[in-house]
């Protein structure tokens, strides 16, 4: 049976889809069988980030509505043999995902994969609660800013009340992934410090992903950032996070401020 991960946040634009693709590829790279599932009906971002947008024929909603069988909708990754994508539908009908339909698809997937990673839409509405319903582990993606932390805190409340685990009296294993962490702005005090975010949310830290142009570059190539340039700082952060998900006890590094030429000049001038 698969471990089911939901990548969630409440707020949009914090890095959920980037994280889903990056963790999926990082886990598949170790040989595990992984499927990433796009719950963001109408937006369809995950297929773009995975570079699979031209291969989408059938999607999640087609499977639920019985127009396609699950294997027809799964897209195999071009680079990693054990990585698959179940794309979202472009329909405008947000109610196209039904609870029974989602239950059946996730149960099917969990029989065939080691990891099922659900990419949640923004908000706390139906799409987000459907995405977290089956979660064993929730990766709460948070940026070091007040609005993001506040929305993550709301999501934690929902994870503790509206999931299948909560209904059974169990708890979802919640991990904080701090993303878009900018060491320069943190040093200036323009961003919340890691300790402050940890204090407020009080969740175990899965990792800290730095703000980096490598993320946009990888997404322009349609390659998950964790495998695009594995030596880049965000790739290392995501690969380490995947190792922690697999149970390794690795210390989390807080990204340091790297001074470019301009920064060195400014420091000298100061
Ligand atoms: N670590 C990062 N550094 C720089 N840009 C990032 C980082 N993580 C995400 N982004 C950018 O932020 C935007 C939103 O990311 P996305 O993963 O789509 O967020 P969400 O799924 O939460 O809406 C995208 O343009 C993405 O390239
Ligand atoms: Mg997204």
From TrEMBL:
GO terms for molecular function: ATP binding; ATP hydrolysis activity. Gene3D superfamilies: P-loop containing nucleotide triphosphate hydrolases. GO terms for biological process: division septum assembly; negative regulation of cell division. The keyword Aminoacyl-tRNA synthetase does not apply. SUPFAM superfamilies: P-loop containing nucleoside triphosphate hydrolases. Pfam families: CbiA. Residues 5-225 form the CobQ/CobB/MinD/ParA nucleotide binding domain. Belongs to the ParA family. MinD subfamily. Interacts with MinC and FtsZ. NCBIfam families: minD_bact. This is Septum site-determining protein MinD. It comes from Ancylobacter defluvii. The gene is minD.
